[in-house]
Amino acid sequence: MLLMAGGGGADDLRICLVEAMMVIQGQGHDWRPRWLVALGHNRTDWTWPGLLGDKEEHSQLWTCCGPRDSEGVKSLRAVASLLACGICQASGQISIISSPWIEGFEAFLELKNVPEGVQEYSWHRGANDNADSMIVSYQPPSHAWQRGPMYSSRENVTVKGDLVIKDSQLNDTGSYTVRVNLSTETQTATGWLEIHKWEGDPGISANTTSVVEYRDPMAVFCHTNVTDATRIQWYVNVLNVSSNEQMTISPDRKTLTLHHLSRYDFTIRCGIENVLGLPQKSDYIFPKVFYGPDSVLLRTKPSKFSNVLPTEVGSAVQLDCTSTSSPGPTYRWIHNGSFLSSEASLSFPSLTWEQMGRYRCIVENPVTQLRFYRDIRIQRPRTIPEIRTGFYLSGPLVVFFIVMTVLGGVYLCGVLIYFLITRFSTRYLSLRVKGGALVGIWTQKPAPPGVGVAERRGKGQARKWVVRNPTGQTHRFWFFLNIYFY
């Protein structure tokens, strides 16, 4: 927006709204709208090329001009004052620069393009610079101030001609005109001052503050009168967030929907940016996220091995079952299929035979309805048999083998003797009774007449001998091994 202000009498002021659609040749620009509001004399020496620049441009202009008191001009003045941040003037003309201000703080109307040799700055309320609308004036040569009818004890003029309003109020919003008296001429400019009500910190609420991790959604609402969606921000864990797979922000940015939360989402808040560009943030919402249990940890004393706790009867045994969840989990111990305890730990100062067996620790979160368990078996240690690498014989077995060896040797000797006698000997045995025992005499000569020949028949200790006498009769004798050899 370009607002032109020219010096001269107020009676000759006219306001013109010009919409210019132009194309700048050689730059490839499309048609662009420009709005120009001119305040000044009803003169014909203001040429559009001078206003639009020195570049060669083709313009199609629609001009709407009228007396300053007409209804249309009043509307144009309101639109111009709302859209303009200040008054930009042609070269050599003063201008007023204004920014939005907050109620209760100082507000400034700053002058630009002020020439040298200013004799007086005179500020007026409204679009006129008459005496009835004067607020205050300042004369730099004499450093003199003069108050006007619109003075409210909160206004002041700086040495540079700027208007300062302390403790600004909402009713200070409006048009302000400055008249600058120079040695050779007088210039005027009109600007708009906008005072905004202090926007309190936004409020915040949620449809719920307790959710189950990765399961329940949560909607958070930002309560503010700000209608510009670009001025509303959302913060999760202090970080500025936008719509993504985990969350969605409504088009007016006043509602944040979290599709699922995790245990690491600690804080949620919203904020706005006030007219001064300063952030204002709401209170925090601390969501309570229920989670777990994720696993079960089972500790034992003495230590277990592969879910087996080997121990003897009478030993001290400790079983501790732990898990992480929110809220805290409930515990149940099952022993051999029967409920035993609802504590997290079991202690056996002196283990009995009945206390051995299978134990199961069950951990459950009543809110998330998740359940985990861990099993362990208490039993006596298994005996590992001794493995011998050498040859080993017990004492009785050694005696048995010795006896058998001796008997076997005797038997072999007897067999050998028998074999030698029966196969290779040509002697005969001469038997006779001597001292109650049968005595045999071996000789290699043929048996003489009258001498009997003995023949052994049978085996064993008692053998049957058949003796043939010279007459051919045979006699049988039984005797033991007490045979004497001569």
Automatic annotation (TrEMBL):
Annotated Gene3D superfamilies: Immunoglobulins (2.60.40.10)
Pfam families: Ig_3 (PF13927)
Chain segments annotated as transmembrane: 397-421
Keyword terms: Disulfide bond, Glycoprotein, Immunoglobulin domain, Membrane, Signal, Transmembrane, Transmembrane helix
Top-level lineage group: Eukaryota
Residues annotated as domain Ig-like: 293-377
Protein name: Carcinoembryonic antigen-related cell adhesion molecule 18
Protein species of origin: Myotis davidii (David's myotis)
Organism lineage string: Eukaryota, Metazoa, Chordata, Craniata, Vertebrata
